[in-house]
Write a structure and sequence with these properties.
With 121 residues, the chain is an all-alpha fold. The chain folds into 2 domains: 69 residues, Orthogonal Bundle (434 Repressor (Amino-terminal Domain)), CATH 1.10.260; 35 residues. It contains 7 helices and no strands.
């Protein structure tokens, strides 16, 4: 499941809405919506994100968060390390090889380390 999919599922749960009802209201199939929630579809289009935000009547910061989650929720990514240092290539490959084995706590630590490194620059 992607961060965007988890947020959509939480919103649906809070509002007591089924995938079928939501899908019908936003103009997609329930199969597509399920695949989107489970990370089996690519990142949603801007138009679909706007329909979802409107469907849940989400405003301001919550809408910005949903947009950010959608942006970071592509389930199959490619990292182009051409032109970067050998360490960058090693990091990308090691992450690709080991990400499925990492525990949630380890993922949290890595995400925090990356966020801290970004803030320093």
């Amino acid at each position: 499941m992607t961060p965007f999919g988890a947020r959509m599922r939480k919103l649906r749960s809070e509002k007591g809405v089924t995938q079928r009802d939501m899908a019908k209201s936003i103009g997609v199939s329930s199969a597509y919506l399920s695949a989107l929630e489970h990370g089996k579809r690519g990142r949603p289009s801007w138009y679909l994100i706007q329909r979802i935000i409107n469907y849940f009547n989400v405003i301001w910061d919550d809408a910005d968060q949903i947009i950010a989650l959608a942006h970071m929720s592509h389930p199959r990514i490619t990292i182009d390390t051409s032109g970067l240092s050998p360490k960058a290539t090693a990091l990308a490959n090691q992450l690709a090889d080991q990400i499925a084995e990492l525990r949630e706590e380890q993922l949290d630590q890595l995400l925090k380390s990356l966020a801290d490194a970004r803030r320093k620059y």
